[in-house]
Each structure stands twice: as C-alpha cells, then as structure tokens.
Amino acid sequence: xxxxxxxxxxxxxxxxxxxxxxxxxxxxxxxxxxxxxxxxxxxxxxxxxxxxxxxxxxxxxxxxxxxxxxxxxxxxxxxxxxxxxxxxxxxxxxxxxxxxxxxxxxxxxxxxxxxxxxxxxxxxxxxxxxxxxxxxxxxxxxxxxxxxxxxxxxxxxxxxxxxxxxxxxxxxxxxxxxxxxxxxxxxxxxxxxxxxxxxxxxxxxxxxxxxxxxxxxxxxxxxxxxxxxxxxxxxxxxxxxxxxxxxxxxxxxxxxxxxxxxxxxxxxxxxxxxxxxxxxxxxxxx
Amino acid sequence: xxxxxxxxxxxxxxxxxxxxxxxxxxxxxxxxxxxxxxxxxxxxxxxxxxxxxxxxxxxxxxxxxxxxxxxxxxxxxxxxxxxxxxxxxxxxxxxxxxxxxxxxxxxxxxxxxxxxxxxxxxxxxxxxxxxxxxxxxxxxxxxxxxxxxxxxxxxxxxxxxxxxxxxxxxxxxxxxxxxxxxxxxxxxxxxxxxxxxxxxxxxxxxxxxxxxxxxxxxxxxxxxxxxxxxxxxxxxxxxxxxxxxxxxxxxxxxxxxxxxxxxxxxxxxxxxxxxxxxxxxxxxxxx
Lengths: 286, 287
Known about the structure:
heterodimer; A: about 290 residues; mainly alpha; 2 domains; 14 helices; globular; B: about 290 residues; MetI-like fold; 12 helices
C-alpha cells in the first residue's frame, strides 16, 4: 500500500536480525567450543596474538571432534574452577536471601503508608542509587572495617542486602497498586502485616520475579566488590573475577568454565522472562 | 493507605537500619577522614586533602577517563536502545525471538563472555578479517589506542537489554487508538511522532538517560575483563585510583576523592533533570 512504510519495516527487520545474531553469538560460540578437546582448544588459543601481517586465526566454526574432556577436567579432575563456582553460588544465594527479607518490606513501607518524610527517604534512596560504586565503596569500607568484616564473605554479601536499585524497582510498582485492594482486606480484619503477606506479595509477583532475576544477574557478575573487599583472600573470589586469568593462562578448559557459568544465568532468564517483561514499570519518576 | 508512621515502622526498620549503617552514618563520618591528615596526631588540615587529590595526575587521568567513557557510553546506550525498542515495537507480535535475543545478554555474566571477546578482537581474529574484507586496515584492538572500543562494545552488549525494556514498555503503553485518530485526521508520520510518541515517551526517556549514566559509571567491570587489574592509560579510571589508595590504606585520599566524584555525578544528573524539564516544556508548547 505504502512503499515507504514497506522499506521502513524491512530496514527494521534487517537491523534487528543483525543485532540478534551479534547478541546471541557469544553464548552459542562458548557452548560450541566447550565441547572440543583440551589439546584442540590449547593449540587454537595459542594462535592468538600473532602479529604477522600474513597470518590469520583459523575461523574454527565448530569443534573438530566432540569431546567432554574440558568438562571432565573442571568437574572431576581438577576442582579449582568448581571451587570458584561454588563461591559464586554462595554469594548469589546469600545476597538474594537477605534482599528477600529486607527489600520488599522496605518498598511496602515507602509506598502504602502515608507519613511525614516518606518522600524524603525515597529521594535519598534514589540519590544513593545514582552514585557509582567508586563513591559508595567508601562508606561501605568504613563500616566493614569497624565491624572487622573486611576479607570475609560478609563484606561482599552484607552491603548488597540494602541495594537501593531494587527498592526503587519494587516501590515504583507497589505505588501503582490501588488502595481499594488494601481497604478490602482491612474490612476483613487484616492488619498491615497480613495484607502485606497475603495481598501485596502475591499481586507484586511479576516485579518481585523481575527484581530477583536482575539481582541474580548482578550477583552472578560481581567484580568490583570482591576485588576491593577480598584483596587479601583470593580463595574467596567468585568465578566472575577469574575468567580473564583463565583465558590468559591458556588452560584449554576455559570454555567449559564459561559455559558452566552461563548455564544458570540462562535458566534464570527463561524462568523469569515473563516477569521481566511485565514487572518493570518504570515509565515515570514519581 | 495506612496513615500512621507507627504502622510502617516494622517494615521500614530492617532496611533503614542497614542503609544507615552501610551508607548514611559512614558517609557523614567519612568527612572526618577527608579533613584530617591521618598521622598519629591526626591533625585537622581543612581542604588540603581535597586540593592534593585534585592535583594528583593519576586522579585527573582517572576522572577524565571515567567522564569520557560515560559521555561516550551513555548516549550510545540511549540511542541504540531507543532504535531497538522502536524496531521491536513495530515488529510485534512476531518479535518474541528478537526481543529475547536483545534482552538475554542483560542477564548473562559478561565475565564469561570476555573470552569470546578476546578471540573476536584478536589481531588475526574475525573482526579484523571483516575489516580487511571491507577494504580496511587491521587494527590492534587489544594493545593499541583502540583498546577502548572492545570495552565499550562489551559494555553495550551487556547493558542494552534493560534500557530496551523500559523504552518498550513506554511505547506499548501508548494507546493505538491515538494513532488511528491522528491518521483519520490526516496527521503525517512526522507529525504523529512529534505530537504523540515523543511527549508520551519523554518521561521514560529521561529515566533511560539516567539509567544509562548509572550503568556507564559501572564500565569498570568491562575494563577489568579486557584490560586487567592494571590497565593501560586509556582505560585507567577512577576505580583504579580508588583501589590503589585503598590498598595503601590512605583513607584521607579515598574519602576526599569519593566526595568530589559524588559532587560531579550529582551536577551531571542535575543537568539531565533541567534538560528534561525544558524538553517537556517545549513539546507541550508545540502541541
């Protein structure tokens, strides 16, 4: 009907297709390479960094021979990667558990109660959210030092329990809930606590799911906190901080390690995909 | 809905206590460090720490790089995510696969993807192959002055998803009937964009702009992945300076640097806020 519109739709399609390939390729390639044998990967990774103008790296689209050697190495023979992986699991689980106890309640208190200073507190939390880690690490370090928690796992876990971004996310959703919902439950004799557990939490399930997924993604990719707070305890580092070392040492099993690390994130994505799309309602700062 | 502070208290208490303990109190207490000299006598030195940090060449390099990188990354993130969201919005409902492919990296650990990045941007790797096939010259991505480009691209790969969702939900909240009515009235595509889409998207756009800057300040992750813990000059950011001072237990300089950086960050967000207000005024004035 309208040739201009047709061209626009096709341009959008081409742009999106190219983007989709680029966005997905790193994961696909990691999984493919994780099934090649250790010697094959070692010799392939050795061809990196060749500065001869005539030399190119092999395109190496897929493994020459399917092998589980890399997985055998990291899961059974040598447990260094596995140990770091377990550290990551401990951090992610401990942070999520603490956040679940603290943050939804705080967001509820800041959205469904009317009291003096509510907006002021929320404003301070938003300001805190805007500050980069280089700034917030300083107050955190001062407290952790007084508490004697530096160079322990708690140094990474505790400050994350009060991450302002998720308060913001949850509060923006809760503020849109109609008051009638809570009025109806008070008529039935429920106090603020019962209403929170039986009405607000179930209704907020999409945003809680989205916040949990986003928080997991952040906790699974920790870098700044462990590097700063655990500088004297390298054995407590999560796996996310050691990949560039693995790639540098040319161990031959770095792709299985990466695949192992991507897999849980992928499961979380597929499980919470719907919540992320419907739970994030940040159309306005109010 | 509930009107008494007493009722809110049990819900606020754990969170507020933690925020005060880890941020509020030390943030104010830290001022003490920034105005004393840290010696045995711990004398009051006024703003000396601030001036000495401000004049330190490594602080200046770190601050300049941090600001440069965020002024490159945040607008890129903003524009690309708007284009992607507009494209995805046009494609619905067949766009589920494309939407997934754009969102998924936001949940993926970029730490695990860095190995692929190092391969792609190798001197003999696929990116340079494509470049030469297009008639260009090979570029020394991982060692030369272009070191920032792979870092920025890894950052964009990882962070696009979230901004796309925020834009997408804003676009989807505009009722289709508005466009239908405008088309009936004979409004052109351009007129519709300026009088319907833009004014309704500006509040979200402001939020995305802010979130873009918030995430751009976190580019240290990607720098560490590609440049290591002791990166070359083009990638040396404030985080490296702070870690360095922190490892030397120089709390005077760490706190002074943090407060100055916080001030700069708030100035930047203040500017963003002002520009949103003028943009809204102008759009409302037109329509």
